[in-house]
């Protein structure tokens, strides 16, 4: 270790690394570095603690293999121990030789059993140092480049921009000290050492007791009762809660006893110094010495007891539960059989409860210290006039100092000092049993200057009510009139604060912004380039933020607590101004946290600079004392000043600064220190204290845990936040303030689980944020998207120059904010999830509006950068269309409202009131089968059978009608007579039949009986087409399920393989289930059930029976029905191009399917083929077209009207011919489904020959003309 030298700027760094698990699973490395080593000890014993923490890609504890790999990857090569020893040996030799001589020196060094010859010259270490520095510079640059690449690869982190609790990088800059007070206090004078050591130890213990009460006693006592139900006494919850906090109450009782002993010791030590007997042997002359630091710590310790008394007395729930618990213990002692405890076993508990009640629950902890006996152990304290006057002098001086302070200077945290000086004054009056009217005036002025004194949380101390009960001698000084005057002063002060707090909040905001800008500007200059002026400026900037924070916190606590104490309602403007002050407080904390690296770099230099200023004053005083005549008193002063110099030469630890103040108090006698020296020293030491404890004091000054007791202002803040949307980023500061509440709630110990109160508080805060911010943002974004999407409709004016439009983009672009360090809330992600669920749900409800929601989705992405997941609906919702079960149950409705396409196998809705038409395809049927199972196929056939039974009844009645039957018999007779003269059924007869049926009457919709009969056949065909579609969907579903099986023909038994492998019974069961599934898939895939054959066989015997002989002429009505179908089809296709698309259609293959099915059921295929209807139709239209062509050639070219008429006639004939050909192809395709091995050979042969002749006839007729359309032509049509 190298001792610290005052004339060098070298900083000794001692690094220790410890790994701990972070809150997000990151490994945090804590590096403690001691800077500015002390002259009073080694660098390892004293220094400024700087904690540097990094967590970027830290590796776990490495093994030998990992360490070898790291040595290959990292550019840093660690030198061996022998190289380091050799280098240190060279440095020692250079120091010993002093650089004497020139040229090359040769030496010999022995390491163990090895002897090394070393050649070096006097400048060799400089050359090596320069090379190492250059190499180190390259390493740092490479490391920086690697870190930048890592940051770019990781991208933005979803965590909030700052969170002191969750932040993986943390800097601890509190100075640390490894030396005890006994080793520190070494002045060379035993008497001085004893006095300084005694008072320093007492002050240190007093400060430790104060910290113990603040961290371990205040939170559980103050939070007790929160989260406990009102009827807890009946349910036993109150007794359980008190039993959990009983250890804390016992701790408080022991704490009071310890405080009593410490205060008694302090008074005895002071009495030993300030003796009234002049002749007695006094250790040291302190007649002119004022140990104010001792009295300050004494007042702070007494103020702790006052705080605990107020916390206990203000908690009514604690007293209620205490009474219930005492009654329970008494009941247990009296009823031994019920509780299973005898009276002797409960005596220790009863004694403990009695001690706690006497020491803590009565709220007399401060009184117990006042009334304890101090005249003991041979010392008389109460009649020590010198000590009484000394203490009164200190109290009056302390009050004067607080009264003169503005609250905005270096003495900014005045509330604890007001409590301390008041407690000390009461202690003085009670212990010495005196009455000084000066205290009334001084304390009255002090209470008016500080009208609100917050002890902890929302506990406000009213000293004028506390003093008369604690000190009866002061009751006359603080009578009822004085109390009313102070109460009126508080009311007036609150009214003034309420009016001016808005302007104060704005001024504070500007002040904080200016301070942050100046700090950013100062951070640009490196600490190695700073001079004294720069150091002074940086020190002032670092401490200015702390002073601002103390002032802002006092104003915030004053307004909140005075409204609560005086029961005054708080207005909206006042609440928003308080929230603005809270944001400013957390902005200050954020600024310090953001400049953590600046603090780590500058704070050691600032502390050294402030120490230098104090040392310069001490040096001048020391010279002045040394130059004067030295007597015993001046020697003591000189020794005290030497001790101050020794303490300030080290790091600014708490112990060293405490010893410094005690030694300065001892040196401030015999006018050794002038007034200007005292003022400068007070300011310098105060600045040094603030700088050394900057991190801790900033945390205390910016702590907003008081908001837990005033959460009613949060809804007002969030409501205004959504209404204005100004400075949206400041919500991070408000949520950081709520995090302070969570830290305080961790001290709760009366509930079943330690984090129960935190969870309840978190749920409450999240409820506010969700209701007042997140949900409103979602509604506004959805409304804006809807209005923008439907801007083509007649809506209200949305002119931005007339109506203000809220811009939600800044709020949506806000970084995720952290709620109580356990939940990240991203407004953007929340809105995206809301839009996803909304679009999905509304698309399911109204599938026809899917395009609207897709437009809203795209608009959200382009306007707000909101990317939502597309609504991939499952197979049973939008993708399925109409459900098979619904079709099956309402098949009679389905066949009427849907049209069938034979070639592409789909149904399309005939008409709809919506914007789109529904379709049913193979994919939809397959999805339904996958949803409901393969059993719906057989059920569909059964429903179709029931439907066909009803339709065949209507079918039979129509053909049995006399009008129809007579015309069919007539056509049959004509065809028999004309059969010998012509090959095909006469077209004129079919056309005449169609016209004659219309003469029988039409429906209101203009449909004839033949139209209705054609519709009946189309419905039958649609039913058959639906059966075919279901069968195809089943095969499609089976093929999709079986595509993962490699070979359906050779499926290995997994069960047998598992048995051969001797697997467990559970594995065998799983193998059996898998084999069953595979067999089912294979069976469904190979199943070849022809449902058409079933539906033909079930109806053919009955319909071909002699009782239904009127059905034998059905084939004769097909020609007029084809003419009727062609006319209807052409009309429907013409309507496709019209604006009113009523009765528009482009396909209706259900008619062809129905005709083919009926021909097969009635066994009339051969009879229909014998008509040669299609060839006759073809020849007729060819002849008609030839006639028209001849007329066009014969007419004169000048007759334009005739030419147009002939062109229209030719176009109409072509359309009719094309439509008849499509009808022929559709019927031929449909008849294929009803041919097979099960068909009779005679029917097949006759039908095949007839159709072949018919086809050949058509082919021969269209040779040289236009060829008939194929199936693809129909598809394209």
Question: How is this fold's topology laid out?
Answer:
Layout: E1 16-21, E2 27-35, E3 46-54, H1 64-73, H2 81-97, E4 104-111, E5 114-121, H3 124-154, E6 176-177, H4 181-184, H5 190-223, H6 232-235, H7 237-273, H8 292-314, H9 316-334, H10 336-339, H11 343-361, H12 365-371, H13 385-404, H14 415-431, H15 437-449, E7 453-456, E8 459-461, H16 463-470, H17 480-523, H18 532-565, H19 572-594, H20 596-627, H21 632-648, H22 654-667, H23 675-692, H24 694-701, H25 713-724, H26 731-745, H27 756-789, H28 809-812, E9 817-819, E10 823-825, H29 827-845, H30 850-864, H31 884-889, H32 891-897, E11 898-901, E12 906-909, E13 919-920, H33 922-932, H34 935-960, H35 962-978, H36 987-999, H37 1009-1042, H38 1054-1060, H39 1065-1086, H40 1091-1103, H41 1114-1135, H42 1150-1161, H43 1165-1169, H44 1173-1194, H45 1200-1232, H46 1241-1261, H47 1271-1276
Antiparallel strand pairs: 1-2, 2-3, 3-6, 4-5, 7-8, 9-10, 11-12, 12-13
């Amino acid at each position: 270790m190298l001792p610290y030298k005052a004339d060098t700027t070298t900083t000794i760094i001692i690094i220790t690394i410890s790994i701990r698990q972070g809150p997000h699973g990151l490994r945090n490395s804590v590096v403690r570095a001691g800077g500015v080593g002390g002259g009073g000890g080694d660098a390892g014993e004293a220094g400024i603690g700087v904690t540097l923490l990094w967590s970027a890609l830290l590796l776990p504890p490495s093994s030998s293999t990992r360490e070898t790999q790291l040595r290959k990857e990292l550019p840093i090569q660690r030198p061996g121990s022998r190289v380091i020893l050799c280098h240190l040996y060279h440095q020692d030799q250079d120091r010993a030789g002093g650089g004497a001589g020139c040229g090359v020196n040769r030496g010999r060094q022995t390491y163990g059993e090895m002897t090394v010859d070393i050649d070096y010259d006097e400048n060799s270490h400089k050359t090596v140092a320069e090379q190492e520095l250059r190499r180190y510079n390259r390493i740092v640059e490479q490391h920086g480049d690697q870190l930048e690449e890592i940051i770019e690869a990781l991208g933005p982190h979803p965590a909030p921009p700052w969170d002191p609790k969750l932040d993986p990088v943390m800097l601890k800059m509190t100075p640390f000290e490894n030396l005890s007070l006994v080793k520190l206090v070494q002045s060379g004078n035993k008497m001085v050492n004893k006095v300084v050591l005694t008072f320093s130890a007492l002050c240190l213990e007093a400060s430790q007791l104060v910290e113990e009460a603040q961290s371990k006693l205040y939170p559980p006592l103050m939070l007790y009762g929160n989260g406990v139900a009102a009827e807890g006494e009946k349910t036993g919850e109150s007794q359980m809660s008190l039993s959990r906090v009983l250890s804390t109450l016992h701790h408080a009782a022991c704490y009071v006893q310890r405080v009593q002993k410490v205060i008694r010791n302090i008074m005895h030590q002071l009495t030993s110094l300030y003796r009234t007997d002049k002749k007695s042997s006094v250790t040291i002359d302190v007649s002119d010495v004022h140990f104010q630091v001792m009295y300050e710590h004494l007042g702070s310790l007494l103020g702790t007891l006052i705080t605990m008394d107020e916390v206990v007395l203000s908690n009514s729930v604690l007293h209620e539960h205490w009474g219930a618990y005492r009654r329970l213990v008494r009941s247990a002692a009296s009823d031994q059989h019920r509780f299973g405890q005898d009276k002797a076993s409960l005596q220790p508990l009863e004694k403990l409860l009695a001690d706690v009640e006497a020491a803590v629950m009565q709220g007399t902890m401060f009184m117990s210290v006042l009334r304890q006996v101090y005249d003991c152990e041979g010392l008389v304290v109460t009649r020590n006039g010198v000590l009484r006057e000394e203490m009164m002098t200190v109290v009056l001086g302390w009050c004067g100092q607080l009264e003169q302070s503005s609250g905005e200077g270096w003495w900014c945290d005045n509330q604890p000092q007001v409590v301390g000086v008041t407690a000390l004054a009461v202690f003085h009056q009670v212990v010495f049993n005196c009455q000084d009217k000066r205290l009334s005036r001084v304390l009255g002025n002090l209470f008016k200057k500080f009208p609100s004194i917050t002890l902890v949380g929302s506990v406000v101390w009213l000293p004028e009510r506390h003093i008369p009960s604690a000190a009866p001698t002061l009751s006359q000084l603080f009578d009822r009139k004085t109390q009313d005057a102070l109460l009126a002063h508080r009311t007036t002060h609150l009214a003034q604060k309420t009016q001016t707090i808005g302007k104060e909040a704005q001024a504070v905001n500007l002040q904080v912004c200016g301070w942050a800008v100046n700090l950013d500007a100062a951070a640009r200059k490196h600490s190695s380039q700073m001079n004294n002026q720069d150091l002074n400026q940086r020190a002032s900037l670092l401490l200015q933020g702390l002073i601002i924070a103390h002032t802002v916190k006092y104003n915030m606590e004053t307004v909140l607590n005075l409204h609560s104490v005086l029961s005054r309602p708080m207005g909206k403007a006042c609440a928003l101004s308080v929230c603005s002050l809270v944001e400013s407080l957390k902005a200050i904390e954020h600024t310090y946290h953001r400049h953590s690296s600046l603090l780590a770099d500058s704070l050691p230099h600032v502390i050294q600079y402030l120490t230098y200023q104090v040392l310069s004053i001490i040096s001048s005083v020391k010279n002045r004392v040394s130059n004067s005549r030295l007597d015993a008193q001046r020697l003591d002063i000189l020794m005290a000043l030497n001790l101050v110099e020794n303490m300030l030469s080290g790091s600014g630890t708490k112990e060293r600064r405490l010893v410094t103040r005690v030694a300065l108090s001892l040196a401030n006698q015999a006018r050794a220190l002038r007034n200007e020296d005292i003022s400068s020293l007070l300011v310098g030491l105060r600045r040094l204290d603030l700088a050394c404890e900057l991190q801790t004091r900033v945390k205390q000054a910016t702590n907003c845990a008081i908001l837990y007791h005033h959460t009613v202002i949060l809804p007002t803040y969030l409501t205004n936040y959504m209404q204005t949307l100004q400075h949206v980023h400041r919500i991070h500061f408000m949520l950081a303030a709520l995090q302070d509440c969570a830290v305080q709630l961790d001290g709760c110990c009366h509930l079943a689980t330690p984090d129960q109160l935190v969870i309840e508080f978190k749920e409450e805060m999240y409820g506010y944020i969700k209701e007042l911010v997140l949900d409103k943002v979602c509604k506004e974004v959805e409304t804006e998207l809807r209005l923008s999407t439907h801007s083509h409709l007649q809506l209200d004016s949305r002119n931005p120059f007339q109506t203000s439009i809220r811009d939600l983009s800044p709020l949506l672009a806000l970084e995720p904010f952290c709620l109580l360090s356990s939940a990240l809330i991203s407004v953007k992600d929340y809105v995206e999830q809301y839009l996803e669920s909304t679009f999905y749900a509304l698309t399911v409800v109204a599938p026809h509006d899917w395009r609207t929601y897709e437009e809203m989705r795209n608009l959200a992405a382009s306007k707000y950068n909101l990317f939502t997941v597309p609504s991939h609906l499952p197979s049973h919702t939008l993708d399925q269309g109409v459900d098979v079960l619904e079709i099956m149950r309402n098949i009679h409705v389905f066949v009427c409202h849907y049209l069938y396409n034979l070639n592409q196998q789909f149904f399309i809705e005939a008409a709809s009131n919506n914007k789109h038409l529904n379709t049913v395809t193979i994919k939809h049927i397959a999805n339904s089968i996958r949803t409901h199972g393969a059993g719906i196929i057989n059920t569909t056939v059964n429903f179709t059978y029931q439907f066909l039974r009803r339709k065949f009844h209507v079918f039979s009645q129509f053909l049995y009608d006399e009008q129809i039957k007579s015309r069919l018999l007539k056509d049959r007779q004509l065809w028999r007579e004309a059969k010998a003269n012509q090959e095909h059924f006469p077209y004129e007869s079919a056309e005449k039949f169609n016209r004659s049926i219309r003469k029988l009457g039409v429906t209101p919709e203009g449909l004839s009986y033949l139209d209705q009969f054609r519709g009946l056949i189309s419905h039958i065909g649609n039913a058959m087409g639906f059966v075919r579609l279901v069968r195809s969907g089943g095969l499609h579903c089976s093929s999709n399920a079986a595509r993962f099986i490699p070979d359906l023909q050779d499926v290995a038994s997994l069960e047998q393989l598992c048995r051969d492998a001797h697997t467990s019974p559970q594995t065998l069961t799983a193998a059996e289930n898998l084999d069953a599934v595979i067999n089912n898939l294979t069976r469904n895939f190979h199943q070849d059930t022809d449902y058409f054959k079933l539906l033909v066989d079930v109806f053919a015997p009955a319909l071909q029976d002699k009782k239904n002989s009127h059905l034998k002429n059905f084939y004769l009505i097909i020609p007029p029905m084809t003419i009727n179908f062609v006319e209807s089809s052409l009309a429907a296709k013409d309507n496709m191009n019209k604006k009113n698309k009523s009765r528009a259609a482009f396909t209706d293959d259900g008619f062809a399917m129905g005709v083919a099915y009926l021909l097969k059921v009635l066994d009339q295929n051969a009879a229909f083929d014998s008509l040669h209807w299609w060839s006759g139709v073809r020849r007729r239209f060819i002849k008609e077209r030839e006639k028209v062509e001849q007329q066009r050639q014969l007419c004169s070219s000048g007759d334009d009207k005739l030419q147009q008429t002939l062109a229209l006639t030719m176009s109409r004939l072509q359309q009719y011919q094309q439509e008849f050909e499509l009808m022929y192809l559709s019927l031929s395709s449909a008849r294929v489904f009803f041919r097979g091995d099960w068909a009779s050979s005679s029917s097949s042969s006759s039908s095949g020959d007839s159709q072949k002749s018919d086809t050949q006839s058509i082919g021969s007729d269209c040779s040289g003309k236009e060829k008939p359309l194929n199936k693809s032509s129909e598809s394209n049509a």
